[in-house]
Design goal:
The structure is a single chain. The protein is of the alpha+beta class and 169 residues long. The protein has a single domain, classed as Jelly Rolls. It contains 4 helices and 9 strands; from the N terminus they run H-H-H-H-E-E-E-E-E-E-E-E-E. The strands form 2 sheets. The protein has a 6-stranded antiparallel β-sheet with strand order 1-2-3-9-4-7, with no helix packed on it.
């Protein structure tokens, strides 16, 4: 990652320098929306921000996946692809509780493409001005520059397999 000051990241994200300092020193846990803003400002993925330095193995074992829980949205993400900066694609499992969304409002990435496959449950994908209801076995593919989010419209936890290129999550 490039060298950035807290002031520069604050200007780019709209987040206060104090808050960013707390995040940097593990004194505060930012929301997914804030993490995405920080990652975009630093030109990396959210999982890169959360990654630890333990090598760049290409095999990701089930019990060793990087996991991110977003309690305010009741969603859990598990990184299925290696969490290093050399990857051109990122794969993750998202588990979303009933009635919950992946983020407060649809978000767009600066570039790239995204794919999601519904492993289980029912979700609605908001994609620009459109929405699509998806059930187990359905998938969606789109330009990630379009603002988007997923909502669980079923009664059970929904599980999505997602792929993004370049890594942006």
């Amino acid at each position: 990652m490039k060298s950035h000051t807290l002031e520069k990241v604050s200007r780019q994200t709209g987040l206060s320098v104090g808050f960013l300092s707390q995040v940097e020193h593990n004194q505060s846990m930012p929301s997914l929306t804030s993490l995405r803003k920080i990652a975009e400002a630093l030109e990396c993925s959210v999982f890169t921000l959360l990654a630890t330095e333990d090598g760049g193995a290409h095999v990701v074992r089930r019990g060793r996946r990087r996991t991110f829980r977003c309690p305010d949205h009741k969603v859990t993400y598990e990184l299925l692809s290696p969490d290093h900066n050399r990857s051109r694609m990122e794969l993750a499992l998202a588990r979303l509780r009933p009635g919950c969304a992946t983020c407060d409002s649809p978000l767009a990435h600066s570039e790239g493409e995204e794919f999601a496959f519904v492993v289980s449950g029912r979700v609605q994908v908001e994609l620009g001005n459109d929405s699509h209801d998806l059930e187990e076995g359905d998938s969606v593919y789109f330009n990630s520059c379009i603002p988007h989010r997923y909502l669980n419209i079923g009664e059970d936890v929904a599980c999505l397999l997602t792929a993004m290129t370049p890594p942006t999550f």
